[in-house]
Amino acid sequence: MQKIKNICCIGAGYVGGPTMAVIAQKCPEINVTVVDINEKRIAAWNDENVENIPIYEPGLSDVVKESRGRNLFFSTDVDAAIKNAEMIFISVNTPTKTYGVGKGMAADLKWIELCARQIARVSITDKIVVEKSTLPVRTAEALKSILENTGNGVKFQILSNPEFLAEGTAVEDLMDPDRVLIGGDIDTEEGRTAIQTLVDVYAHWVNKENILTTNVWSSELSKLTANAFLAQRVSSINAMSELCEKTGADVNEVARAIGMDSRIGSKFLKSSVGFGGSCFQKDILNLVYIAKRFGLQEVADYWEQVIIMNDHQKRRFAMNIVESLFNTVSGKKIALLGWAFKKDTNDTRESAAIYVADYLLNEHAEVVVYDPKVKPEQIYADLDYLGTRTEEENRALLTVVNEPYKACKEAHAVAILTEWDEFKAYDWQHIYDAMLKPAFVFDGRNILDINDLKRIGFVAHGIGMTQ
Ligand code: NAD
Ligand code: UGA
Fold first, then answer.
1. What is the DSSP letter of 422?
2. What does the pLDDT read at residue 151?
3. Phi and psi, residue 159, nearest 5°
4. For 200-225, what is the mean pLDDT?
5. For residue 136, which of 78, 242, 220 has the smallest C-alpha distance?
6. Pocket probe mutation, ligand 1, options 36, 117, 344, 349, max atoms within 8 Å of Cβ
7. pTM above 0.90, yes or no
8. 279 within ligand 1 shell (Cβ under 6 A)
9. 166 CA distance to ligand 2 centroid (A)?
10. 226 Cα nearest atom in ligand 2
C-alpha cells in the first residue's frame, strides 16, 4: 500500500482551504500544501494574524493555527507542490460557463483542464489525482485522457471525492461528515489501491462505515444529485410559501407538520427569500445541461423548475416591498440587513440580496446595506458584476454602513436577507422609533417574531404567512 507523505491541493478557496486544514490537523504525519494562483489569497492564508485568513468559517482559524507552518502550508509555487506530492486534490472553481456552447448552463472546466495539463507537465513520479471540485459526470475520463497523453510515462490514478460541506458549518461538517464519498477505478488493482490510499487518509478521523466507495461515475453524479435534492426542498417549501400567503396557512407550521414525518425529515424546510450560494444554481444548471445533451428533455425540465421557482421567490420578495410601500420606492431609504447568502459566512456568491438590491435600485430606491462579515468592496463588486448600471451609479445609489442602527435610521423599510443571529437580538423598538412611519419590516428569513414587531407598531411581513 502506498503511504502518503505529501498532499498538494490546487485551489485555496472555500473548499480547498478548510478541507486541507482539517486533513493537516487530523494527519500530522502528512505534509499538506495548498496552492493557488491568487497571490492575495495565499498571502491572506499566511497572514501572521490568523483571524485575517481569507475565509470566515466558525472554528476555522483555530484549526489553521494548530497546523500552519507545522504540516500545513499555503503557497503560490504550484509546480513545486505538484512535483513533491503523491496525492493531488483539484479544488478549483467550476462556475457556469459565460460564453460559447453551453453558455449559462454547462460547468466551465477551463481551470480543471489547466490543472490537469500542469500536473501532466510537472510530474516525474506517479500520482493519485483527486477530483474535489464538483464536476459533470464523466469528467474523470477527460482528465485521464489529458494526463495520459501529455504525461511523460508517469502513471496517474484518478479518484472522485466530492465535498459535501456547507458554508458556515464547514469545520463541523469536515470533522464529522455524514459520509465521505470516494469513487475510483474499482475494476483494476491499481484503482482499488488508490481508493484505499485515500480511505486511509480519511480513516484518521472518520468511521470506516461512513466512508463510501463507488465507481467514479456514481461518485461524480451523486454530488450533483445531492445538491439538486437539497435545492429542490428549498424550492418546494418556497412554492408552498406563496400558497400559504394566499390561504391563511403559515409556512412554518406546514414545514413543522410535514417535517415530523420521518420519511420527509425536518431539515432544509426553511422558507426564505430564495437560496443562494455558489453551487446550487450552478450544479442544477449543469445537471440540466447534461440531461439535455443526452436528449432527456423531461429530466432537464423537471430540474430546471427548481431554478425557475427560486428566481420567482427572489423577485416576488422584492416586488412585495415595492407594492407594500404604496407602489413606489423611488427616493425611499430601504435598509437591507444581511448580504451573505447565509449566516456565518462572508461568501456572497449568488446571494438573494444581490438580486433584491438590484431590483430596488431599478425602482430608484436609496438602498443602505449592513452585513456583519461582508466587506463593502465585495458588495459593490457583486452589483457591478450584474452589469445593470455603471460602477459610479451603483456607488451613488447604494451605501454600505458598518452599524445596523445607522442603516435603519430614517428608513421607510428594513428587509432581512440573511439569517444572522445578531439580527434577532437588536432593539427593534429603538429601530422603530428612528424609522419613518409607517415603518415596514420584510423578514426574508422568518427569524423575527412578526407579532412582536406588530405590537411595536411595524407593518411586518414574513415569508409564507398572511399579513
Ligand atoms: P473558490 O473560487 O473559493 O476557490 C477556487 C480557487 O481555485 C481560487 O482561489 C482560484 O484562484 C483557484 N484556482 C483556479 N484555477 C487555478 C489553477 N489553475 N491553479 C491554482 N489555483 C487555481 O471555489 P470553492 O468555493 O472553493 O469551490 C471549489 C469547487 O468545490 C467547486 O467545484 C465547487 O462547486 C465545489 N464545492 C464548493 C463548496 C462550497 O461550499 N463553496 C462545497 C462543495 C463543493
Ligand atoms: C450546499 C450543500 O448544503 C452542501 O452539502 C454542498 O457541499 C454545497 O452546497 C456545495 O456543493 O457547494 P451551501 O451552499 O454552502 O451548501 O449552504 P446551504 O446550507 O446548503 O444553503 C444554501 C442556500 O439555501 C442558502 O442561501 C440558504 O440560506 C438556503 N436555504 C437552506 C434555505 O433557504 N432554506 C433551507 O431550509 C436551507
1. G
2. 62
3. -120, 150
4. 97
5. 220
6. 36
7. yes
8. yes
9. 6
10. 5
**CA 428, CA 452: separation in Å to the nearest integer?**
9
* Preceding amide of 438 cis, omega within 30: yes
Please state the rounded mean pLDDT for residues 265-291: 97
CA-proximal residue: ligand 2, atom 6 (nearest)? 164
Q: Is 399 exposed, middle or buried (0-12, 13-18, 19+ CB in 10 A)?
A: middle
pLDDT tens-digit readout, 31-57: 999 999 999 999 999 999 999 999 989
Q: Where are the alpha helices (DSSP H) in 10-104?
A: 16-26, 39-45, 60-67, 78-84
Mean pLDDT of 195-204: 98
For residue 418, what is its C-alpha cell? 440573511
Burial class (CB in 10 A: 0-12, 13-18, 19+), 40: exposed
What gap in Å lies between CA 311 and CA 123, rounded to an integer?
Answer: 45
Which uninterrupted H or E stretch holds 215? strand 211-215
Residue 225 Cβ < 6 Å to ligand 2: no
Is any ligand 1 atom within 6 A of the Cβ of residue 351?
A: no
**14, 225, 227: which to mutate for ligand 2, most atoms within 8 A of CB?**
227
Residue whose C-alpha cell reads 461524480 in the numeric block: 220
pLDDT at position 150 over 90:
no
Cell of 462: 414574513
String of b and e for 290-305 (b: at least 16 CB within 10 Å)? bbbeeeeeeebeebbe
Q: Per residue in 224-252, is it b (16+ CB within 10 Å) or e — as a string?
A: bebbbebbbbbbbbbbbbbebbeeebbbb
Q: Is 172 in the pocket of ligand 2 (CB under 6 A)?
A: no
Atom of ligand 2 nearest to the CA of 279: 12
Look at ligand 2, atom 3, and give the residue with the nearest C-alpha: 166
Q: Is the CB of 147 under 6 A from ligand 1?
A: no
pLDDT tens-digit map of 383-412: 999 999 999 999 999 999 999 999 999 999
pLDDT confidence of residue 1 = 54
Residues classed as catalytic: 163, 223, 279
Residue 49: how many CB atoms within 10 A of its CB? 7
For 1-19, how does the pLDDT look when each residue is reduced to its tens digit (9 = 90+)? Answer: 568 999 999 999 999 999 9
Q: Parallel, antiparallel, or unpaired: how do β-strands 413-416 and 440-443 relate?
A: parallel
